[in-house]
Amino acid sequence: MKTLFFTALLALSFVGVKEASAQTMLSQPSGYASLLIGYAKPNGYDNRLGYGTEIGLKMTNGVNGFGYYLASTATERGAQADATHYGVGADYAFEGLAGLRAGGRLGMVNRTGLSSAFSVGPHIAWDYMIAPNLSLGVEPILLFDTGTNSGTSLYVFGTGRFWF
Questions:
Q1: Which of 6, 113, 137, 156 is the most buried (most CB within 10 A)?
Q2: For all residues of the chain together, what is the average pLDDT?
Q3: Which long-range contacts (CB under 8 A, 24 or more apart) does 116-119 make?
Q4: Distance of alpha carbon 72 from its chain centroid, rounded?
Q5: DSSP letters of the chain?
Q6: What is the pTM of this model?
Q7: Which residues pair with 131 in a beta bridge?
Q8: In contact, 121 and 105? CB cutoff 8 Å
């Protein structure tokens, strides 16, 4: 039953049904602050819980710029194994698809015992408005880490955003 409910909710959000009155947003949001929590698979480490934050501002019609901080911590093979990604990004909010945004990120990655390196990658986000200034959503992020220990880091977050 839960699966059917969430499938119907996702379908309704993409077709813009007027009866979905909770899917209304502030008339002219200028930015957002968000908390992220979910699955993390940092480059070189095992699966674990990840968390983070984003603060974004509207740059032009449909385009947001943001700063981000993503982290995960765990003990692997008896040693502390932390991974942190941080930087800036931009995304485009698709006008015809309520709540859908896609864009890219550019930043740094720090991993326990390794030097810092650049990271770059795409992300996609979907937000469902539960109040005029509050949304819940999902955001998968794939980051390509450069440097001597290059590879990919994957995050799949549940998000809570406050729009202002």
A1: 137
A2: 85
A3: 116/147, 117/145, 117/146, 117/147, 117/148, 117/149, 117/150, 118/145, 118/146, 118/147, 119/85, 119/87, 119/143, 119/144, 119/145, 119/146, 119/153
A4: 14
A5: -HHHHHHHHHHHHHHT-TT-TT----SS--EEEEEEEEEEE-TTS--EEEEEEEEEEEEETTEEEEEEEEEEEEEETTEEEEEEEEEEEEEEE-TTSTTEEEEEEEEEEEETTS--EEEEEEEEEEEEEEETTEEEEEEEEEEEE-STT-EEEEEEEEEEEEE-
A6: 0.81
A7: 134
A8: yes
Beta bridge mates, 106: 88, 120
pLDDT in tens, 87-102: 999 999 998 888 999 9
Tokens linked to 52: 């983070």
Cβ 153 vs Cβ 83: under 8 Å:
yes
> Among residues 135, 150, 146, 56, which one has the least CA distance to residue 103?
56
Q: Which two tokens stand for residue 149?
A: 């220990």
Cα–Cα distances in angstroms (integers) from residue 58 to residues 2, 27, 72, in the given order: 35, 13, 28
Which residues, listed in sequence order, are joined to residue 5 by a DSSP beta bridge? none
